[in-house]
Amino acid sequence: MAERxxxxxxxxxxxxxxDAEIPDGSDEPLTIVADDTWRLQKGERGPxxxxxxxxxxxxxxxxxxxxxxxxxSALPTGAPRLGLLTSAEVRGVIIAAAASACExxxxxxxxxxRTYGERxxxxxxxxxxxxxxxxxxxxxxxxxxxxxxxVIAARNR
Length: 157
Known about the structure:
Layout: E1 3-11, E2 14-22, E3 30-39, H1 45-62, E4 67-71, H2 82-99, E5 103-107, H3 109-115, H4 121-126, H5 128-134, E6 135-137, H6 145-154
Parallel strand pairs: 1-4, 3-6, 4-5
Antiparallel strand pairs: 1-2, 2-3
Helix pairs in contact: 1-2
């Protein structure tokens, strides 16, 4: 039976969500169930985080998702900026909400680049043929490929 897994990538106040079914066969493509974007609501941050937490937890419970993979924080290459801290706060909200519903894994791009295949993640993200082979079902936006890559990398762990 296929397992449901959701990949989350957080950038600033925006959460990219890819919901996929992982088939039993390791060579079979993922079935994309949903590809969505969640935005932190405007206004005070505390209530906005509470709404995002509830939305995430409700989604994972209602869809009976078995696991979640979140893109982990990475060290900044330059001076830290406010966007980096905002991303970290939103990432924490998503991780906490997901942990209330299912198993949660965190993967960084660097780890995936070292442990999955022979190329770096960014090369896979640009390769249309790779995505045609690895996914089926619903439409996957190019901007959501990174979230789907988390699910692909996690499926064999």
